[in-house]
Amino acid sequence: MLETTEFALLRRIAVEQSTNRAPSLVAAVVRDGRIAWSGARGTVDGTAPDEDTQYRLGSITKSIVAAQVLRLRDEGLLDLNDAVDKHVPGTALGSLTVAQLLAHTSGITAESPGQWWERTEGGDWAALASALPAEEVRLRPGSRFHYSNAGYGVLGELIARLRGQSWLDVLRAEILQPLGMSRTTPRPEGRHASGWAVHPFADVVLPEPEHDAGAMAPAGQLWSTARDLARWVAFVGGDTGEVLHPDTVAEMREMATVDDGDTWTAGYGLGLQVLRHQGRRLAGHTGSMPGFLAAGIVDAATGTGALALTNSTSGVAILGVTLDLISIADDYEPRLPPEWQPTEVDPELLALTGLWHWGPAPHHLRILPGGWLSLAPTSGAGRASRFRPAGDGTWIGLDGYYAGETLRACRAADGTPTHLDLATFIFTRTPYDPAAPVPGGVDPDGWRS
Questions:
Q1: Beta carbons within 10 angstroms of residue 421's beta carbon
Q2: CB-CB contact of 234 with 298 (8 Å)
Q3: Which domain of life, per UniProt (predicted)?
C-alpha cells in the first residue's frame, strides 16, 4: 500500500499497543484474498512478532466450527431446523435446534457448569452432557440472543457424530487444509506468543495457563497466525475456495439475531458476528482466552478485511483496532470499481427487462451478472429484491421482502412475456392489464376520471 497508508495503519496499532500496554500486537489488512499490509509492535521472546507467529484465536474457532456445520447441511446430512436430539441423542437439550445453537438463540447457559472452562483442563463429551441438564436452558429458546460457549461444545459433538471422527480432525481435513491454513492448530506449535495478564496498576505481567479444553474446545481451542487468519478473513468475505459455496457463507453473514436491540449495530448470524459501523456492514468474529485477544473482520461489499492478535488478557480494544484498520485502508486507498464491459445476454432474458407494474406501482427489471435479475420500484423506495436463476426457468429471491420466493415469467404462445408471477403478486407491462390474471380481476369499465 502507499507509504502514507502504511504509516497511518502502523500508527493505529502503535498507539493501541503503547496506550493499552500489550506485550505484543500483530495486525494485517486483507484485500483480494491476501495480506495487503501487516505490522507488529512489542516483542515475543525478545523479537517482533510476524505473520507466522501463533496466537490463540479464542472464539474465532466458533466461526470455523459453524462453517463445518454448514458443510454438513449443504451435503444434506442435517437441516438447520433439526432438533439436536436427532443427531446427538440422549441429552437434556434435545429439543433445541442446530440453527439456535449456531446463532446463540438456544437460551442455553453461557458457560459449561463447574469450574471456568477457559482456565481448567477440559473433560470429555459425557462429562459435558451430564453437566447440561434441562435447567441449564436459561431463556426461552429463540426468544433472544444469549451467547453460549456451551452450545458450541454441543456442535462439536454433532460434527463428530456425523463424520465418525473428532471435530478437530474434520475441521483439519475439510476446512483448514483445503484453505492452506497449516499453522492453525489446537495447541501452540513452532514460534508462538505466551499469554500474559498485565497488572492494572503496574507495568508487570503474569503468565496465563494454556490447556486442552476437552469437549468445550470447539468454543475456543484453536491457535493461528496472522497469515492463516488472513485466509479465514478472505473466506468470510466470500473467497471460499472449494470449502463452501459463496452463497452459503453469505447466508452465515446474514443477521439472525440482534445483540444490542436499541441501536442495532451488532448481532449474530450463523456462527459469525455481524456489525454495522460507519455505514458498513461487516462480518467476522472476535476471540478472547486467558492471555489472548483476537479479531478478524471483513466488509464483504468492498472485499477489505482486517485482523489483529495480541497476547494480553484484557485492555486492548481488539475489535476497535480491526475496524479502524478497515476504515483507514478504504479511506486512504478506496477500491476502484471494476471496469464496465458489455456481456452476452440471452435474448429471452433481455425481453424480460424494462417496466413492469404491480397494480399501479411501476418497477424496473434489470439483468445482473450471471443471469441474475433485479426487480425494484422505480421510485427507489419499496420492495426490491435480487433473484438468482433456479435452473428450471424460474428465479429465487435472494434478499428483501421476496427472499426465498419464486419469480416466474409467464409467456404467450409465441414466447412474448405477458406477466410476472411472484409469490402470488402479478406484475404486468401496463397497470392492471386486463389480459393478465390479476388477482381479483380488473374492473371491465377500466380506468375512469
A1: 16
A2: yes
A3: Bacteria
Nearest to 302 by CA among 267, 334, 340: 334
pLDDT digits (tens, 9 = 90+) for 243-290: 999 999 999 999 999 987 777 899 999 999 999 999 999 999 999 999
C-alpha cell at 267: 448481532
Cα separation, 326 vs 284, whole angstroms: 13
Burial of residue 232, with CB atoms counted within 10 A of its CB: 0-12 exposed, 13-18 middle, 19 or more buried: buried
Residues β-bridged to residue 305: 30, 298
**pLDDT reported for residue 291:** 96
pTM to 2 decimal places? 0.91
Single-letter code of the amino acid located at 205: V
DSSP assignment, residue 269?
A: -
Q: Which residues of the chain have pLDDT under 70?
A: none
- Please, what are the domains in the chain? 3-332 (3.40.710.10), 348-428 (2.40.128)
**Do residues 78 and 98 touch, judged by C-beta distance below 8 A?**
yes
CA–CA separation, 136 and 231 (whole Å): 36
